[in-house]
Amino acid sequence: MLYKISTEFEKYSTVKSAEKIISDLGNQASEITILDLSLNTYTPEVLKEMCSKIKEMKALRHVILESIFDSLNYEDMCLCLELLCESLPETLLSFELPSNAVSCNFPEKFGDFLSRTPLKKLNLHNCGLGEDGLVKVGQCLKKLEDKSILEYLDLSKNRINVISKEFAEVFSAFENLSSFKLQANTIEESSMELFLGNIENENLQLLDLSDNFVCGKAIDYLGEVFIRNKITELYLQDIKVDDGDIFRLLKKMNSKPTQEVPGGFEDQRSELILDISCNSFEQDCVKLLEDLASRFLIKKLVIFDNCYDSIDDLKTMISSDGGVLIDQEGDLMSQEEVLDDELIKRLGSI
Predict the structure, then answer these.
(1) What is the DSSP string of 295-327?
(2) Which of 55-59, 256-260, 276-280, 330-334 shows the lowest mean pLDDT across its residues?
(3) Does residue 260 lie within any of the structural domains?
(4) Where would you tag: which of 5, 209, 301, 319 has the fewest CB atoms within 10 A of its CB?
(5) What is the DSSP string of 248-259?
(6) Is residue 65 within 8 Å of 100, Cβ to Cβ?
(7) Is residue 125 part of a domain?
(8) Is the pTM of this model over 0.90?
(9) Does an H or E element contain 63, and which?
């Protein structure tokens, strides 16, 4: 059962102001599997009462806490985060804390929570972690006894800039990690090269590196990562490429050997979603995209804000297979709104 707070952008400052929510949480504690407290703020006084009910939620598996610390001072934010970490069950599978100013100075109890809770999904999007916060999160994850569980990790929009080799080693230890989002960190070229050149994962299916410096040697390593893994979703919008980088990447993506099966040849990945918009690639890359479309079923290809002359043949190839080619930014936004609606419906039906 999904329990989602019905209000948005409300600050619950007193226990009385949140008495209905606290009552609902208590009455439905045994049924709640997904708890969404997003887009509202709760003072420590209020959250303490809510957490007393959360402790009773033995079936709780997913927690979504987007922007719940807005307008709180640092001390109250830390106290609220500690209260949550103390109340959540160790059987939790998914923890989402996007758009909260946790910073690298998050409380020790949050670190302990990350170190002891074997999550399938961890979302720390836009938490202001920075380079020091990434190191601390990596150290916490390194302490997890079972590293086979984590499947989804979102560290996007955290002003990270630099990634250490040690984090790449920790990252590689999560053998079943399938989705990784690192976009909008403006990670410098040498760091991205170091990261992509040292990760050893083989089960990645979704990789988002948009708005980082994925250029030069990092592009070659990315090509190797694509081939070695099972990536079917690759997001590379505005990756600050040098001349020829996208061409080299597409050539590498096309070089994966096909596997002989009865009736012909087949790659292990039948479908592909690729976003290479805002990268200034030219017409020579369009031919490689056509080759890619003959190898994979392109479910979605996003290429707006580039320098090609004609994409008519490419568009025909993709649409004939039921795929979508997006060459206008507005079309991408419209499709994302539809996907968000579908996600909300799926969550509500659980």
Answers:
(1) HSEEEEEE--S---S--HHHHHHHHHTT-EEE-
(2) 256-260
(3) yes
(4) 319
(5) HHHHHHTTPPPE
(6) yes
(7) no
(8) yes
(9) strand 62-64
Alpha-helical (H) ranges within the chain are 19-27, 44-54, 74-87, 108-116, 130-142, 165-173, 189-198, 217-228, 245-253, 283-295, 312-320, 329-349
Say how far apart CA 252 and CA 317 lie, in whole Å: 21
Residue 191, domain extent: 161-350
Q: Which amino acid belongs to residue 21?
A: I
Q: What distance in Å separates the CA atoms of residue 311 and residue 291, rounded to the nearest whole number?
A: 13
3-state SS, one letter per residue, for 15-58: CHHHHHHHHHHHHCCCCCCEEECCCCEECHHHHHHHHHHHCCCC
Please name which of 107, 105, 208 lies closest in space to residue 152, comparing C-alpha atoms: 208
Structural domain contains residue 153 = no
Residue with tokens 């996208």: 246
Q: Do 188 and 214 contact (CB within 8 A), yes or no? A: no
3-state secondary structure of 127: coil
What 3-state class would DSSP assign to 175? Answer: coil
Sheet with 233-235, strands from edge to edge, namely 2-4, 34-36, 62-64, 94-96, 121-123, 152-154, 179-181, 206-208, 233-235, 271-275, 297-302, 324-326
Query: Which letter does DSSP use for residue 241 in this model?
Result: P
**Residue 284, Cβ neighbours under 10 Å: how many?**
13
Total number of domains constituting the chain = 2
CATH number of the domain enclosing 229: 3.80.10.10
Q: Quick check: is 146 in a domain?
A: no
Cα separation, 207 vs 179, in Å, equals: 6
User: Would strands 41-42 and 179-181 be described as parallel, antiparallel, or unpaired?
Assistant: unpaired
What Å distances lie between residue 57 and 26, 66, 95, 112, 191, CA to CA?
9, 20, 15, 20, 42
Q: Judge whether 296 and 268 are in contact, CB under 8 Å.
A: no
From residue 127, alpha-carbon distances to 66, 69, 161, 194 in Å are 10, 11, 14, 23
pLDDT in tens, 6-50: 999 999 999 999 999 999 999 999 999 999 999 999 999 999 999
Question: Which of 106, 138, 170 represents a domain boundary (last residue)?
Answer: 138
Say whether both 168 and 114 belong to one domain: no
